[in-house]
Design a protein that fits this description.
The protein is of the alpha/beta class. 26% of the residues lie in helices and 32% in strands. It has six helices and eleven strands. The strands form two sheets. Strands 1, 2, 4, 5, 6, 7, 10 and 11 form an eight-stranded mixed sheet that branches. Strands 3-8-9 form a three-stranded mixed sheet. A hairpin with a 5-residue loop joins strand 4 and strand 5. It is globular, with a radius of gyration of 16 Å. The N terminus is likely disordered.
Length: 182
């Protein structure tokens, strides 16, 4: 499900819950509650996969780019972006979430902006470690018309709906700054 971003995003609102459940479920020290406050500002851009020198941290399909450009034109919002996030919840422990955002919704110290073929996507730093190397796709069939994350190398299992997943245990122990060094 995709939501229009109005006011603080669901990702920002759920930080307290995420930190609390993360701490309770994984029995980490109180310092693990600081996992979401460490931030960096990153931006990746590519015109096309074959001519790019900057490799995006996730694979973004042409269908995803085409759909975002279509929606931006249809809504007359040239700064329309798709925010991709991960939050605690779902039947497997974590779930993917998508919402529309504009340039006013970007937090410079926290969000990573991905751009491919004039389509823009936003991922916060903490969510990025859970989806790095995965593929963002847009599918439209008889059952659904939606953005989806597929082929995620950072998960050990997922539910049948492809929305909820269980991440690799190493990701839960990793501090956000450790991922930047790799």
């Amino acid at each position: 499900m995709i939501k229009q971003c109005k006011g603080p995003s669901i990702f920002r609102q759920s930080r307290y819950y995420f930190n609390k459940s993360f701490h309770n479920n994984h029995r980490h020290s109180p310092s693990s509650l600081n996992i979401l406050h460490k931030r960096s500002s990153l931006s990746f851009t590519t015109a096309s996969p074959s001519t790019s020198t900057n490799k995006l941290p996730i694979i973004i399909t042409e269908a995803s780019c085409d759909r975002m450009k279509f929606l931006a034109n249809k809504r007359s919002e040239q700064d329309l972006m798709l925010r991709i996030g991960v939050s605690a919840g779902g039947c497997s422990g974590f779930q993917y979430e998508f919402e529309f955002a504009g340039s006013d919704d970007i937090e410079q110290d926290e969000d990573i902006i991905l751009e491919k073929n004039d389509a823009k996507f936003i991922v916060d730093k903490t969510s990025m470690k859970f989806i790095k190397g995965a593929k963002l796709d847009f599918i439209s069939d008889f059952i659904q018309t939606t953005f989806t994350i597929i082929d995620n190398p950072n998960i050990v299992s997922e539910c049948g709906c492809n929305v909820s997943f269980q991440p690799n245990a190493e990701l839960l122990d990793m501090d956000d700054d450790e991922d930047e060094d790799k």
